[in-house]
Predict the 3D structure of the following.
Amino acid sequence: MKLVLQRILTRVLGVSLRAKIMGLVVGLLLTLAAAALFQTERSIGPFLNEQLDAQGISTATYIADRSPEYIYRWDLFRLYTLVRDARNSNENIRYIFIVDPEEKVLVDTFGNALPGGLLSANQAGASEPYHVSVIDSEEGLIRDIALPISGGKLGTVRIGMSVKGITKAKSNLLTGLILVTFSVLLLGIFFAYLLSWILATPYRRMMEGTKIIAAGDLSYRLPEWSIQDEGGQLTQAFNGMIENMEASARKIEELSIMRRGLAEKVMRLQEKERLRLARELHDETSQSLASLRLGLKYAEEAQSFEVMKTRLTDVRQFLDETFDGIRRLVTELRPCVLEEGELGQAIKRYAQEYEKRFGIEVDVTIAHIPQGLSGENASSLYRIVQEVLTNVARHAKASQVSIVLNSHLGDINLTIEDNGIGFNVPEIMAKRVENHKFGLFGIQERVMAFGGTSQIESAPGQGTTIYIKVPGSANVWRK
């Protein structure tokens, strides 16, 4: 039984939002209509009966007040005229008759004898001002009213009030109420449909938009909802979410393009570096080895020990020069001081070579760098300095560069500033994919790789400053 109820509840709650709203509104209206009809049916009957009794009692009182004069004089004609006029004055009065204290009929409106059993059907008690009895006749229910004349000393007035009129009035009232209820129900259904359409439209549009967006079209936007209720706010929030998704997708695509471009640049630089090394090895190392081989051959062919010693001395000097050349190549590839964590010394040596090569003055300040900097982070910071100085030489047209490297509370701070022509940072960053400029992006990628942050400040004609911070929590120091 519980499972059946659960299934029924699931199906009922599983209908559309519009159907739920329509069902709730129509159900509420039907409940209110049924309650109104029930309450009307329950209260209108007694009320109409009371009104009918009041009419009969009023008429009976009127007759009882005027009939004693006619009874004393035994003027039955005037008494009959009184009863007849009262009978004709109210269409709800079915009959009127007057009986004396001995239950003999003095006058009546029947014209013939009273129906059997009517005389004894209702009697007023000695202490009762009047008495009402309901009689079931062939013509329907009759509310019979017995009202004593002069306290019963002169007899009793009997009036029969037909309920046909109030039954008809009650029927007309209920019919009108049903028509009004039906009209209100139709109006309620219309407004319920309108309300359900207003409430369900944003959700329906959102569902359609979700399907379109799920298919990959992030340019789709929901039509703006003119009603600024929760539905309109939800529509605006949904469009805002899609705009953020579209911006994120563009950013991801831009990062993907920049990373591919950066990877291509790295590959080109690697190939260029390999070509340079090949040329260096060919032009210097290979020739030096060939010269060494030739010098050793001459030493073998020496005619005396002194000549051989002189030639071997020349070979040794030439070998030292070859070692220096190879050491220079190795230092260019990776300074040996980085293996020892001596980042400051490596930057200073590179700055000296940079000044000689490009003629740009480089001021290096190294402060508070404890021993123990990890080789990976030292290498990354060194490559960042190389990349920044290379960009300065290519684009900045600067005459001076300042490099400040320090440590504070375990964090590494690197600041590189030049006095070059500067540039518009937002404009350059926005067009870096279009212009295939990935140098700054490569620097940012290196910084982000070990949990650092970077900031670029520049303006046309005001030089450029790059701030880099590596938090101590990013495994900066060797353990």
